[in-house]
Design a protein that fits this description.
With 341 residues, the protein is α+β, with helices and mostly antiparallel strands. The chain folds into three domains: 164 residues, no CATH class; 70 residues, no CATH class; 77 residues, no CATH class. It is 38% helix and 13% strand. Helix 1 runs antiparallel to helix 7 and helix 4 crosses helix 5. It is globular.
Length: 341
């Protein structure tokens, strides 16, 4: 990876002068106070959806080729999204002339042109998607005074790729993806959109990505208003994260209103962590036709503050059994818990 090459270059001279090496063990309060500025700056860059300027893109890519990849410069192809880019790479690999690649990509999606496409792999030059990495490096360069030494020029070139989408270097051309046309975040700056796509691209093969609170979900779960969600839809889900987002959107209390409480943390006053997680065991048989008993464990995730409602086996008749089953047979009531990560 280019990033690792830069780090290696920066550390070579330092390793030959160990007597001059100074270990940074902590940040000053002033340095720490600067962190939010870098987070805000690079978050804005990461979610920027401006369209690429062709001449600027070519200039950046040619510097990347010459200085980082150590290759000859080649033509640059800009496509609408990463999936189009991936298909374009396969046509280039198959020997299609650079000038014909955009038309072949369109034929592949519109006319069903046959081409064996491997499973998608993210490139190691991720454009604006590497904003979090540059936030980290810029902070330590500008605020802590880390000297990249002879790697500074290479870092500046790599740094300039934040203006682009993902970059796919091929021997005969470099394929560059446009950035998304839409990126939505929630108040915690996590990818999220209730009612539509959280991320959207132009073009073929990858248009809308539906995400709730950082979890990619089926389209119907993202776009259906919470008051129109049904328990029948919940029963179609087999992914625990999808179920969590359904419960969060549907409303945990609304969901539990269809069930019957079997046991509660309130019955175990000596179990501190059961109380903190507000464990409850509910029979949700009403959600399932033909089932007499369907125990579910309700709990508060203390790390992220989200309610979970997870099914457990019918053998669980009380909280002790349900919690032990969820923890692979470990009985929490017999252990001292010092903290939760």
């Amino acid at each position: 990876m280019v990033m690792f090459n830069i780090i290696k270059i920066a550390s070579t001279k330092q390793n030959t002068n160990q007597q001059n090496k100074t270990m940074i063990e902590s940040l000053t309060p002033e340095q720490t106070a600067k962190m939010p500025e870098y987070t805000k700056k690079w978050l804005a860059i990461g979610i920027n959806t401006d369209r690429l300027d062709y001449d600027e893109t070519v200039s950046i890519i040619h510097k990347v080729q010459t200085n980082l990849l150590k290759t000859e410069t080649t033509p640059v192809i800009i496509v609408n999204n990463p999936v189009e880019a991936w298909v374009a790479c396969h046509f280039l690999k198959a020997g299609v002339e650079v000038k014909d690649v955009p038309a072949k990509v369109e034929e592949y999606f519109v006319k069903g042109l046959k081409m064996e496409i491997e499973t998608y792999t993210t490139p190691y030059l991720n454009g604006s998607f590497d904003a979090n990495v540059w936030s980290f490096y810029d902070f330590f360069k500008d605020e802590v005074g880390i000297d990249f030494k002879e790697a500074s020029e290479n870092y500046a070139i790599w740094h300039s790729t934040h203006k682009l989408g993902q970059i796919y270097p091929m021997p005969t051309a470099v394929v560059v993806s446009q950035k998304p046309t839409v990126i939505h975040l929630n108040e915690d700056n996590v990818t999220h959109c209730d009612g539509g796509p959280a991320i959207a691209y132009d073009g073929y093969g990858l248009n809308s990505i539906f995400i709730l609170n950082g979890t990619r979900v089926p389209e119907w779960l993202a776009v259906t208003p919470s008051n129109e969600l049904t328990l029948d839809q919940y029963n179609t889900l087999d992914n625990a994260d999808h179920k969590m987002e359904f419960v969060r959107k549907f409303g945990v209390e609304r969901m539990l209103s269809f069930g019957k409480k079997i046991d509660s943390y309130e019955n175990y006053p000596d179990q501190e962590w059961w109380t903190k997680s507000e464990y409850e065991l509910w029979d949700m048989a009403a959600l399932y036709s033909g089932i007499d008993y369907a125990p579910h464990l309700k709990m508060l995730n203390q790390t992220v503050g989200v309610w979970h409602v997870e099914s457990v086996s019918p053998e669980c008749k009380n909280l002790k059994q349900a919690i032990a089953e969820r923890l692979g047979g470990i009985d929490l009531s017999d252990h001292e818990i010092v903290g939760i990560a």
